[in-house]
Amino acid sequence: MLEYAFMQNALLVSVLISLMCPMIGMFLVLRRYSMIGDTLAHASLAGVAVGLLAKVNPIISAFAVTSVFAVLIEVLRQRFRRYAELILVIILSLSVGIAITIISSGMVHTNVEAFLFGSILTVTPDDVLAVAVLCVISLAAVYFLYPQLVMLAFDEDGTKIAGVKTRLINYIFALLVAAMVAVSIRVVGILVISSLIALPVAAALQLGKGFKVTMLAAMVLSFIAIITGLVTSYWLGAAPGGVTALVSVALLLLIIIYKEIRAVL
């Protein structure tokens, strides 16, 4: 299986995704922003459409366009603090409208199905390079901003009172979410990125450990889900995104069942 270049590319991208998604997803889940990740995942379709239209790497264009929408969500969040779900509907409608208009107009002649469901056949060396660069930048940002991000995850108002530049950190975090979405679309697919954002973190939270241990556990669970989904999809001839989502749900259920059995015993 690994003698094929496309599988080697897909495996490299999958390993990077398995590290990045739960790392960013941990902060999203704790801040109850999981649906923002899902909204940006759908918004990335507009970025893919723009990239195909402009004949540039769809991952780069998805990151650029999704970054704009991520920052826009943060700007609107300051305006509509009590209506967060309204912001997501606005962004989702705008981005999907752009994507459908471009794709249905006939200006793009490439099949976008691989981006919707994920595909191990379409991952190129350029994609691997783009994903690697975005992952390194994101890991560096989380490393240097880790204390501030943890504070924001638990108490945004208290963090602001403590003198932390919360607005700037929120904008940077929005860009990190955009990067996470962009790196995931090739292998996992736009429609199931949210499963990698939330499910490994949800499963890791069931362990009841500290913040760092929970994040590491989420990364391990994410790695298991993605690699299992990748290998299984290869043998089944199915899209890796769907298989990965099913494995993620199965891991969550197994951990919940294990906790229930331990509680009884």
TrEMBL record:
Question: Which of UniProt's keywords are assigned here?
Answer: Membrane, Transmembrane, Transmembrane helix, Transport
Q: Where, subcellularly, is it found?
A: Cell membrane; Membrane
Principal place of residence: membrane
Q: Return the Pfam families for the record.
A: ABC-3 (PF00950)
**Membrane association type:** Multi-pass membrane protein
Q: Name one GO cellular component term.
A: ATP-binding cassette (ABC) transporter complex
SUPFAM superfamilies per the UniProt record, alphabetical: ABC transporter involved in vitamin B12 uptake, BtuC
Name a single GO biological process. Answer: transmembrane transport
Transmembrane domains' residue ranges: 6-29, 59-76, 83-108, 128-147, 168-185, 215-236, 242-258
The UniProt family comment states: Belongs to the ABC-3 integral membrane protein family.
Name of the protein in its database record: ABC 3 transport family protein
Organism name? Phascolarctobacterium succinatutens YIT 12067
Organism lineage string: Bacteria, Bacillati, Bacillota, Negativicutes, Acidaminococcales
